[in-house]
Amino acid sequence: MKTIVIIGGGWSGILTAIQLLEKNKNISIKIIHSGTPIGLGVAYSTTDTSHLLNVPAEKMSAFPNNPKHFTDWLIANGNSAEQLEKQFFPRLLYGKYILELFSTLKLQEQLEIINTKAVDIQKKENLYSIQLDNNKSVDANKIVLALGNFLPANPKSASESFFESSNYFKNPWNTDFLKGLQTNQNILLIGTGLTMVDCVLSLKNAGLTGKIYAVSPRGYTPAPHSKTETYPDFYSELKGKTLLEIVQIVRKHIKIAEQKNSCWIGVIDSLRQHFQELWIILSIKEKQQFISHIRHIWGVARHRLPKNTYEELIDLKVKGQLEIIGGRINEIIEKNGDITATIQLRGISEKRTLNISRVINCTGPQSNYKELKDELIRNLLAKKIILAHELKMGIQTNLNGQIIQEQGKMSDDIYAIGSLLRGVLWETTAVPEISKQAEQIAKQIIDSIK
Ligand SMILES: Cc1cc2nc3c(=O)[nH]c(=O)nc-3n(C[C@H](O)[C@H](O)[C@H](O)COP(=O)(O)OP(=O)(O)OC[C@H]3O[C@@H](n4cnc5c(N)ncnc54)[C@H](O)[C@@H]3O)c2cc1C
Question: Is 230 contained in some domain?
Fold first, then answer.
């Protein structure tokens, strides 16, 4: 019997195991997992009910061939069709959906969960030996790397010593930053995307009355979702076009939408479903141009907020409790418990100094694998079992997640899913993408061991 080892038991790893066992029961699956609660990962282990899904429920099914699986589950669990239409559900609730699927999965005798960290992989003839941090090892015929979201990188700062402080929170996804919080303290959030929004909501719900500053190079914040703004599919106009031409065509459609008293939201949603296909055919130079010049504005348009959350954010801004600043951190210094952050403001020569008590890093998961301190990643890069992607995002794979090794050689045995494919696919971390990838990888593995 062949053994498939999945390293990482977040939602990507669990989905892959479910798909593998749906396709073939005559296999052994081992999931090596450590870190956040199994299945839930950083996204769905939140206990804060104000942290909502940022993807509509109808797109969150675990199964690409059963798109209503999650919405049917919501209805079966007491939610009305009207709620489904209007509401973005808490990620905590989605976590319950995951755990229900996981509870069925773990009953299957072919599955073993190994609760420890994988730290290395060695090839031995036709097998792989995966080293664990308890000095044991596990043999595998096939391996799926489902390593998920790594902690954010520290921001650049003239002095690095602050990053050792107990008032610096590198992990924005647990609630450690609320421990011992005094409600009148001022807080600095680095980053102004969806994680910043989660942190603002948690701080507000904890009763914070102090000021919240949020800083990012451009100071853009996420736009709201709208289920009413729809726009026809114009993908056929974009096929085979350069990045510049694509930008021009998208602008043209935004103007058309505006002339029809609609707005850009429908145009972006129409584009979003094809973004992966567009990304794949852009040249490396165009991808780099996108990352330098368009990524921030795309992020605002693409990673959107439920309307209520958006309105809550606006309210906090109007009341003056939340201030969004466009600029870059120059330096953060802590002296006798007082923290001062100096920010080089965007577009002008002035600097601004903020007096704060805590700093939370909301810059998003570190995706430059060469910079990661993770033992497994370091070992795999050193042995060239994986190669870092040239866009400094994840690793090199083909479009189906098969990893690419030295001299462009494709591994027949090692696959990657989710955030590891960021450079290859760009859109690769949300459930609509990882559920499809899990199905595809499982099919390839099962076909290859027949
Ligand atoms: C805050 C946040 C909110 C999000 N909200 C949404 C949303 O609303 N909708 C949506 O579609 N997507 C959302 N996402 C995207 C989200 O990343 C995916 O939906 C999904 O959770 C990714 O799962 P994963 O398994 O790839 O990664 P993770 O959840 O990060 O899980 C990977 C797991 O692998 C473990 N691991 C890593 N290395 C090893 C090792 N060497 N040995 C053992 N274990 C290891 C990690 O500790 C971790 O527990 C969100 C992401 C974040 C960060």
Answer: no
Tens-place pLDDT, residues 345-398: 998 889 999 999 999 999 999 999 999 999 999 999 999 999 999 999 999 999
Length of the chain: 450
Whether 305 is in the pocket of ligand 1, judged by its Cβ within 6 Å, is no
Measured in degrees and rounded to the nearest 5, phi and psi for residue 41 equal 60, -170
| Helix (H/G/I), strand (E/B), else coil: 373 | coil
Q: In angstroms, what CA-CA distances link 202 with 132, 174, 177, 292, 353?
A: 35, 10, 9, 31, 25
Whether residue 13 has its Cβ less than 6 Å from ligand 1: yes
Question: Mutual orientation of helices 91-105 and 69-76 as an angle, nearest 10°?
Answer: 100
> Hey, what are 208's tokens?
């914070």
Residue nearest to atom 3 of ligand 1 (CA): 43
Decide whether any atom of ligand 1 lies within 6 Å of the 130 Cβ.
Answer: no
3-state secondary structure of 331: strand
Instruction: Tell me, yes or no, whether 279 and 401 share the same domain.
Output: no
Please give the tally of structural domains in the chain. Answer: 3
